[in-house]
Amino acid sequence: MEAEMIPLNEKSKNRIQIIRAIAIISVLVIHTVGQSPYELYIRPLVNFGVGVFLFLSGFLTPRIEDVKVFYTKRILRVFIPYLVWSLLLCVVYGDYQDLAWNLLTFQESSIYYYIFVYLQITLLVPILWKLLDARYYWLGLAITPVAILVEGIWALTGHYLIYPRNINNCLVWISFVYLGMLFRRGIIRIHGRYQQWSIVMGLAMFLEVLEGKFWLSFGREDFATTQVKLSSMFVTGCVCVLVFFYITGLHKDEIYTEKGSKKEIFRRIVISIGDASFGIYLVHPLVIYFLRHNTGFLFPLNTILTLILTYLCVWIGQRICGKKLGRYLGFY
């Protein structure tokens, strides 16, 4: 099923960075909201973050000309920075027990499970490209719902999937990457308008709160707020549709147009956060550790401080290291 890739202009690229900024902020909220009594109601608003990052990864994945080059580029791009920051975390924590094993199994920091998921999916991308051309290409969209359903049934039978084991396998995420690939090639069409999908997303978030209460009634706090339950997947799918509308300009057009205006300055700041999103992701476990041990700040102040401090770390790192070394550290 050959189809041309949807072209991206400069506006589309800036919009992608804005989406990345929103996604990384949502990830920071997820990792700092834990002590809030309102976590059950806040998490449905931000659980889309990881799924959107993976959707963008699929959306931006080009047709693979050389599998070896593709693997080398993508794997080294994330694995080297992961090793650097994991080793730094190890030094800060002062725990060197089973260091090699923890590094190879991505357990030095549970927050880095995303790197593990990303690498798994990277290895499967050539297969996903072949699936796109298959008669039953839509089966790729069923992988994540089925995997999440299996985990839910497993949980209802009394078994525990302790974080990050419930989310560090690619099966509960891979359909979002595949969805991005489908959208970029125009294989599936979206019906309805931006406003209609926004309403559907709002209703889906309400359902996510209800599902969270359902899991709490079974004493399962681990599933009540997790990103990988059926309602969360539905919300993230709706967000991905809205992201597609936004990137391709199928929504009401640019809000920020006047150069030098406060809105334009704010837009530039948001884009710069999107540019630094990978570095923010790598640095924020250290910042969270520092804030937890040196301050009594709770949500949302801890989230705001985490964002500011991590962004400053990345900004300073870029200027000290430059692009060549900075890429190995995840600053670019």
Report on this structure.
The radius of gyration is 20 Å and the shape is globular. The chain is mainly alpha-helical and 332 residues long. The model is unreliable at 253-257 (pLDDT under 50). α4 packs antiparallel against α6 (113-132), α9 packs antiparallel against α11 and α13 packs across α14. The two termini are 35 Å apart. It has 14 helices and no strands.
Distance between the termini: 35 Å
Number of strands: 0
In what range is the share of β-strand residues? under 5%
Radius of gyration, whole Å: 20 Å
- Summarize the main sheet: none
Individual helix count: 14
Mean pLDDT: 91
Shape: globular
Fraction of residues in helices?
Answer: 55-70%
Structural class by SSE content: mainly alpha
The low-confidence parts are: 253-257
H-E string: HHHHHHHHHHHHHH
Describe, in short, the structure shown.
With about 325 residues, the chain is mainly α. The protein has helices at about 10-30, 40-45, 50-60, 65-95, 100-105, 115-130, 145-155, 175-185, 195-215, 220-225, 230-250, 260-275, 275-295, 300-330.
